[in-house]
Amino acid sequence: MWTIEPLREDQVELAGEVLARSFFLDPLALYMLPDEEDRKRLLPWHFSCVVRHGVSFGEVYTTSGDLRGAAIWLRPGELEMTEEQVVAAGFHEAPQVLGEGPWGRFSSAIQFLEKIHAKDLSSDHWYLMILGVDPEFQGQGLGCALIQPILDKADSEGKTCYMETAEFSNVPFYQKRGFRLLRDGVEPSSGVPYWTFCRDPR
After folding, report:
1. What would the pLDDT profile of 43-85 be if each residue is shown by its tens digit?
2. In the chain, at which end, N or C, are there fewer CB atoms within 10 A of the end residue's CB?
3. Quick check: 185 and 193 in contact, CB under 8 A?
4. Is residue 175 within 8 Å of 139, Cβ to Cβ?
5. CA–CA distance, 186 with 191 (Å, rounded to integer)
């Protein structure tokens, strides 16, 4: 049903808008930007930075034709952002664009999750940084289609895949696609829940 292809550089902002809609009620987004109008205004910019990083330094997949979702992966051994990569993605402007408070809240929660990530897996692995589908098209198999290219690549390379989510409703989705639950908990400063998963190569 869906044709999946690599996302182009000229689609970065559009993908940021789609992901902003997808994650509009995500617990981490709510914690970062609790005001609804702020989220509408600022989440597209935030996710455009994430997409730009993925396009430049990872692999990003989307739908052919109209953009309905995106999957952003970081390659094995390339998970940490360098200072140059932070600037290239635009994240160096985040304190000014998002505000010191929102960016500080987000950064604190992400740093905690990065420590959990390091505890969960020390070997080289593919990291599913973001998977989002425009709400209008959720439940139609698109999420599965978007991650399949890298799942296939990971299998051929003999590599593990890793991801985390803050939405309990996502847990069965990943379990049905071969991911096994590693741990669950609550990020202490935000109260945001998390579930981490890995998928062994087939």
Report:
1. 999 999 999 999 999 999 999 999 999 999 999 999 889 999 9
2. N
3. yes
4. no
5. 6
